[in-house]
Design goal:
By secondary structure, the chain is an alpha/beta fold. The protein has 6 helices and 7 strands; from the N terminus they run αβαβααβαββββα. The model has no long low-confidence stretch (mean pLDDT about 95).
Length: about 180
């Protein structure tokens, strides 16, 4: 066994990425405080060829050194847009035909392993603030809430870890 060199990985260029087909999934970052978490979101959505990231409210935007530290250039490949109001943005995405999925622990959340995304549908995944979660005014806009089952003493995961788990599950289930 040997580690592969970067040139052996067969990665596509930024231009090829932009021209490639994407999974019909957008990610909404709802008031994310940590610029490292924002950068991680870019890198993760690049890895699974998601359509776009929306940065809302207090969420930092590129260009920023702290975002780039974890994004490692993914801010150049992944399409992104800033919106001041998360609820207005999510309402617009919903009217544009996206199924809105709130990633949150709610009274009616579905466990991640029990949710099966459907081929041919467009999805909007909303990830909330590190302390307060998804904004209260956004919750009613969700078509479904999904949570990751947890069995330890902590009640939540870091948002970038959560985003990685959720995006991998969607990719796995839709890329078959």
């Amino acid at each position: 066994m040997k580690k592969l060199k970067l040139e052996e990985l067969g990665r596509i260029s930024v231009d090829e990425f932009k021209a490639s087909d994407k999974l019909p999934i957008v990610v909404v970052l709802d008031n994310i405080r940590s610029l490292h978490n924002v950068g991680s979101a870019f890198r993760t959505t690049d890895a699974f060829r998601f359509e776009k990231i929306y940065l809302t409210g207090i969420t930092g935007t590129p260009p920023h050194r702290e975002i780039e530290k974890t994004a490692l250039g993914a801010t150049d490949s992944v399409a992104w847009e800033y919106a001041e109001s998360t609820s207005e943005l999510v309402g617009k995405l919903k009217s544009d035909g996206y199924t809105v999925i709130i990633i949150e622990q709610t009274s009616s959340s579905v466990q991640l392993q029990q949710f099966s995304p459907e081929h041919g549908k467009k999805y909007c995944l909303v990830f909330g603030n590190e302390v307060n979660g998804v904004s209260e005014d956004v919750l009613p806009l969700g078509d479904v809430a999904i949570e990751i089952p947890q069995f330890g003493t902590k009640h939540s995961l870091n948002v970038s870890v959560c985003l990685g788990i959720i995006t991998w599950e969607f990719f796995k289930k839709l890329h078959s």
